[in-house]
Write a structure and sequence with these properties.
By secondary structure, the protein is α/β, with parallel strands linked by helices. It contains eleven helices and ten strands. The chain has a seven-stranded mixed beta sheet. A three-stranded mixed beta sheet has the order 1-5-4. α2 packs parallel to α4, α7 runs parallel beside α8 and α8 packs parallel to α11. The chain starts with 42 loop residues before the first strand and ends in a 27-residue tail after the last helix. The relative contact order is 0.14.
């Protein structure tokens, strides 16, 4: 358990939790004056990966292929299950995860090279599988947009999950993909409580802005749903009906959820966050998480890691189904199609919009 430290404006984590692979640790002087420490600035570092499609064989993940233009995420969601992935890069899963962002500058070109290969089997690709493709720096770098233009050029299906209204910037490209049933968007809305949103997901779009994004996508006839990821037992589970009703009113057709999971370093970071921001609710929330995770804060087993098990997990699932029914969500099915996939001729590139 980490000692609580004064919150940092615009950040989810408050400290540089030690990398589990590193013997060197950042140790804060307990007598230091917080005002003497500079605020951590976001750094953008070049990722020189030679490929951009990641593969997984998890039965809990809908797609075998994913693409992540960014590693690390400036959104700073305190509960993010991807935080431990930053340790493989030699960084801390705490503040480093949200301040040291790896940027795959060549992602669009590498994606195009992948699609041009005859070994590529047209199939849905998840964008992103780990971090948000529409985090703040995307407004400037436009890597996600350029990747989407490649998807549209080849008509390869793509599934997108985001917490940022910036996705509405790319409605033109998404509409082109939608013509071929080659895109689906899930906008993540974890809470409608603005004050909770600001401390739990500090640099994401506000809840109403995400609902507005759902409305804009729906009005453009782009298949869109809502995702409560995660549902925090004992904190946000009571919001299920309100979130689903608001999303359905905005135009969402489908809904999904993931129960909070706290792998490795995420658990102490989340506990420290509760101590600082929600001390009176801390034990209730932690105990409720343990009740769906077999007495632990995380359970990595396939089949249970996304929903949990036990009385409270069953209650959340039943509450979810009833609320979806009342909101009119999940009344029909939608499947991405790769039937329109094409490759440009060897002598040139196809026009994006015909």
């Amino acid at each position: 358990m980490l000692d609580p430290i004064k919150p940092i404006k615009g950040r989810g984590a408050t400290q540089y939790l030690q990398n589990r692979f590193d013997q060197i640790a950042y140790v804060r002087d307990p007598d230091a004056d917080d005002s003497e420490e500079p605020l951590p600035r976001t750094q953008f570092l070049r990722d020189t990966s030679k490929s951009v499609i990641a593969r997984n064989d998890s039965p809990d993940v809908p797609h075998d292929a994913t693409l992540n233009p960014y590693r690390g995420c400036e959104h700073g969601c305190i509960y993010c299950y991807a935080r431990p992935t930053h340790e493989y890069l030699g960084f801390s899963p705490g503040l480093d995860f949200e301040t040291k962002i790896m940027v795959k500058e060549d992602a669009p070109e590498l994606l195009r090279e992948t699609f041009m290969k005859t070994s590529w089997t047209p199939q849905p690709v998840g964008l992103s599988g780990v971090t948000d493709p529409y985090q703040p720096i995307e407004r400037k770098l436009r890597l996600t947009r350029r990747c989407l233009e490649v998807f549209a050029e080849f008509r390869n299906p793509v599934s997108i999950v985001t917490k940022n209204r910036l996705i509405t910037r790319d409605i033109d490209v998404l509409s082109e993909l939608a013509r071929h049933n080659a895109v689906m968007v899930m906008v993540s809305v974890t809470t409608l409580d603005v004050s909770l949103n600001r401390i739990m997901e500090p640099r994401t779009s506000l809840p109403q802005q995400r609902l507005d994004a759902i409305a804009a996508l729906a009005n453009a006839r782009i298949p869109v749903g809502v995702l409560m990821a995660p549902i925090v037992p004992g904190l946000t589970d009571e919001e299920i009906p309100r979130v689903l009703k608001a999303a359905a009113t905005a135009g969402a057709r489908w809904a999904g959820y993931i129960a909070l999971k706290l792998p490795m370093a995420v658990a102490p970071l989340f506990e420290a966050w509760l101590t600082e921001h929600l001390p009176l609710k801390k034990e209730k929330i932690l105990n409720r998480i343990r009740s769906i995770r077999g007495g632990k804060l995380h359970d990595s087993r396939f089949g249970s890691r996304m929903r949990g098990e036990g009385f409270h997990a069953d209650h959340i699932e039943q509450f979810w189904r009833i609320s979806c029914g009342k909101a009119g969500l999940n009344q029909d099915r939608f499947e991405l199609s790769a039937s329109a996939f094409r490759r440009p001729p060897a002598n040139g590139q196809l026009a994006l919009f015909e």
